[in-house]
Write the structure tokens for this entry.
Amino acid sequence: MGSTGVAVAMVIVVMMVQADVKPQRDFNLQRFAGKWYRVGLAYDSPTFLQYKSLVKVSMGIVTPLSNGNVNLTMWDQMPTGCVIKMYQYVATDVPGQFTYFSTRHGITKDITVVDTNYTEYAIVLKHKVFNREYTQVALYARSLKVKNEVYQKFKAFALSRHFPRDSILAPPTAENCPASGH
Ligand SMILES: *[C@@H]1O[C@H](CO)[C@@H](O)[C@H](O)[C@H]1NC(C)=O
Ligand SMILES: *[C@@H]1O[C@H](CO)[C@@H](O)[C@H](O)[C@H]1NC(C)=O
């Protein structure tokens, strides 16, 4: 296959990946707003496996904007300390589906809220094309404790997306991030 063939094949793969992911039916952004904890994570990247023992539960605040976009503030416990990151997710025509421009990588990523019941959990798929295709699935919960049935649902989804078993984890809680406590 020439380089054009490879490029065409990649585009087809990307279209297939996006086409078969449906967001939560009747997604309601107002109900999705507020505080979430990222209690589960699956990341399809070889470097992630090296660092996964360092990953801690992150906290996020989802703020809907009047134009349908979303501000997301995340508190991540890093080896260097507690880091606050701000993201802006841009609404698409499909409720529950957003795009996000990563200034760090200079690329657009797709964010899909695959499944949520708003009061307890959300399964969110993040997809990017960066040399090869990297995809992340996150399990967000309204509290630090999540029911086993919810974790199993997240795990089953990640496995159905062909994430390796050892890339799916439930990280320990952060010690002091955000510093003011939870
Ligand atoms: C959303 O984020 C942008 C960029 O950080 C900021 O300027 C704006 O004030 C934020 N809006 C709200 C409602 O938090
Ligand atoms: C949300 O999901 C959890 C776990 O499946 C369930 O126990 C809870 O009743 C659900 N809440 C609502 C409002 O559907």
